Amino acid sequence: MGSRDEELKEILMEKKRRLWNELRVELFENLGAQTNTQYENALDDGEQSLLDVIADTGLSVADSRKEELSHLEEAERKLKEGTYGICEDCGEEIPTERMKVVPDAIYCVSCQKKHEGPQFAPHSTI
Fold this sequence. Notes:
By secondary structure, this protein is mainly α. The protein has helices spanning 3-31, 33-36, 40-44, 47-57, 63-81, 96-101, 109-116. The protein is 65% helix and 0% strand.
């Protein structure tokens, strides 16, 4: 693995760790301390168990994080395939700076703008 690949992997893993931590905190805040112990074993069994717990509780507040995690899972799959950080449209490398800001980016900035159209153009060029 090259140095860019290593850097992209670290960016992705850090984002994933941070998101899981936020999700756990959010879950426990919403379930309350009393329910917390009920799910301790599930958390020990890993990430899938946590997703099951979230689904079981029907917490809608966690939906956006679950969606973001699924994007990160897809990014992790691409990392293993060697296609992570490559624009799905033009096939060019997505700049590392963009990947730092949006670790699950699948398009470079110019292709992203094409997909969003002028009405959704981002304020940033990263």
